[in-house]
């Protein structure tokens, strides 16, 4: 969503803009790192299209996902940002009377199977955890309560479902136990795995996971988007300082 990159674009120095096929982007520097920032649009297909096109064209040293997700785990508060330690397709497999049966499927090459879950690049994940100690989140106020959001490792799931039923929530909890649910990162992670692009996923919690999240997302999504963007800016600056040593 545009709200998820607004603060990132505002931080760019030596900013330029362009368009790759039908997708606009901004480029410039955050700290010592040159970056390209694009909005994917909503859903796994949009996420996969942008990730593939931009990775192929720009040949990035790493791909960073910054955005929001509904709070599946009640310990996550609005504005808490997860460093995804595993990003899961929660609609990959067979839907049975007993819920989802998750399974690998045929990939593009003979004998190659694609998984329903993808870990981040090990070094980026390590660096992200190391960057937490030097990060100072901005306080947020939600439902009359002011607090400082946290940044922590967690599990993110994704599919083209914006809202999910109580039965789906129970099935996901029993079989996957994710912390956040959203709509793009699993596809982007799969693209990065397939193309050999190091990646890491950052998602901040917005509304709780529910069947009809529209009003709650409109109320809380901006807070979550800003929290994820601030953390992403810090991480990119941290990354630049590490690579210059």
UniProtKB/TrEMBL annotation:
Protein's GO biological process: L-methionine salvage from S-adenosylmethionine; nucleoside metabolic process
Gene3D superfamilies: Nucleoside phosphorylase domain
Nucleoside phosphorylase domain mapped to chain residues: 1-232
Name listed for the protein in its UniProt record: 5'-methylthioadenosine/S-adenosylhomocysteine nucleosidase
Superkingdom of the organism of origin: Bacteria
Gene Ontology cellular component annotations, sorted alphabetically: cytosol
Organism: Pelagicoccus albus
GO MF term list: adenosylhomocysteine nucleosidase activity; methylthioadenosine nucleosidase activity
């Amino acid at each position: 969503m545009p709200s998820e990159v607004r603060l990132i674009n505002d931080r760019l120095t030596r900013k330029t803009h362009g368009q790759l096929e039908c997708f606009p982007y901004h480029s410039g520097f955050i700290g010592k790192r040159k970056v390209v920032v694009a909005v994917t649009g909503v859903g796994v297909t949009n996420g996969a299209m942008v990730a593939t096109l931009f990775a192929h064209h720009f040949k990035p040293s790493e791909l960073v996902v910054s955005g929001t997700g509904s709070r599946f785990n009640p310990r996550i508060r609005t504005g808490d940002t997860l460093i995804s330690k595993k990003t899961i397709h929660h609609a990959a497999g067979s839907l049975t009377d007993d819920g989802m049966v998750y399974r690998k499927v045929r990939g593009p090459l003979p004998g190659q199977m694609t998984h329903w879950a993808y870990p981040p690049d090990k070094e980026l994940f390590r660096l992200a955890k190391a960057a937490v100690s030097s990060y100072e989140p901005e306080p947020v106020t939600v439902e009359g309560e002011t607090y400082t959001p946290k940044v922590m490792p967690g599990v993110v799931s994704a599919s083209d479902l914006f809202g999910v039923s109580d039965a789906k929530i129970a099935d996901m909890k029993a079989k996957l136990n994710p912390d956040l649910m959203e709509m793009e990162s699993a596809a982007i992670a799969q693209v990065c795995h397939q193309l050999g692009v190091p990646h890491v996923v950052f998602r901040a919690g917005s509304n709780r996971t529910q069947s009809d999240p529209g009003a709650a997302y409109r109320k809380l999504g901006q807070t979550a988007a800003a929290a994820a963007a601030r953390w992403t800016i810090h991480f990119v600056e941290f990354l630049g300082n590490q690579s210059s040593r």
